[in-house]
């Protein structure tokens, strides 16, 4: 009965690709085969020295860093993240987390991750949106890496408007002192993976890292869904 109802609904409201908006075929889910084939994977996880890690040189110490996809204006990745952040398509986070998790679990640099922590939203923005767009992404990574997902240790204390493409200096100034650690004991001596949706200048991730580095003997790596070109 459920299958019949689903077939009727799909006839009137066909599922469309989150990348190009074309109608999905029966065997396709979330994204069509063409868009899946055209996803701009970075493969940064295979290289210790890569543009994500280089972003933090001379600023904060990062063990390892990677991004799954290249983010370009009006591209497939922008569409995916737009649906994730503003259209309540939280399944996009699962989709991207699963793809990155499959890659990272094969790399020795990421097999000793103890905890996965998302870049937090301010409580007012979280209340307005209803969810942190990084949650499902981080939880999928935790499954693949056999790590623990924790979202209540790093918190955001300043409610700053989105500044995704501001210049580095402006982002750095507004991001500083925006994050606090609520528990300095759980993560002592642990290797954590800090996750976010997109890295542009790296200012937000830098500010999170500075807050977390107040914890003794902590090691921090970074993984994002995408990196802006």
Query: What order do the helices and strands follow?
Result: HHHEHHEHHEEHEEHE
The CA-CA distance between the termini, in Å, is 47 Å
Largest sheet: 5 strands, parallel
Query: What's the architecture of the largest domain, going by CATH?
Result: 3-Layer(aba) Sandwich
> What is the percent of helical residues?
25-40%
Shape label:
globular
User: Counting H and I runs of at least 4 residues, what is the number of helices?
Assistant: 9
How much strand content do the residues show?
15-25%
Radius of gyration, CA atoms, in whole angstroms: 18 Å
Task: Give the low-confidence spans.
Answer: 4-10
| Backbone structural class | alpha/beta
In the CATH scheme, the class of the largest domain would be Alpha Beta
In CATH terms, what is the fold-level topology of the largest domain? Rossmann fold
- Average pLDDT, to the nearest integer? 87
Spatial ordering of strands, largest sheet? 1-7-6-2-3
- Number of E strands: 7
What's the structural domain tally?
2
């Amino acid at each position: 009965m459920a299958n019949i109802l689903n077939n009727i609904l799909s006839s009137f409201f066909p599922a469309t690709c989150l990348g190009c908006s074309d109608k999905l075929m029966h065997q396709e889910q979330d994204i069509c085969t063409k868009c899946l084939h055209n996803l701009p994977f970075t493969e940064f996880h295979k290289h210790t020295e890569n543009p994500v890690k280089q972003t933090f040189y001379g600023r904060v110490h990062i063990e390892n860093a990677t991004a799954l996809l290249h983010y370009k204006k009006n591209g497939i990745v922008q569409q995916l993240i737009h649906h994730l952040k503003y259209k309540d398509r939280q399944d996009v986070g699962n989709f991207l987390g699963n793809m990155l998790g499959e890659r990272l679990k094969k790399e020795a640099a990421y097999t000793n991750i103890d905890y996965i922590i998302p870049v937090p939203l301010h409580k007012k923005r979280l209340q307005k949106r209803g969810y942190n767009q990084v949650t499902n992404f981080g939880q999928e990574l935790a499954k693949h890496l056999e790590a623990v997902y924790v979202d209540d240790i790093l918190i955001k204390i300043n409610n700053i408007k989105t500044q995704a493409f501001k210049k580095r200096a402006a982002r750095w100034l507004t991001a500083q002192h925006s994050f606090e650690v609520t528990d300095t004991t759980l993560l002592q001596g642990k290797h954590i993976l800090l996750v976010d949706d997109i890295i542009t200048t790296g200012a937000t991730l830098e500010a999170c890292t500075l807050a977390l580095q107040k914890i003794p003997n902590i090691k921090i790596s970074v993984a994002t869904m995408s990196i802006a070109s």
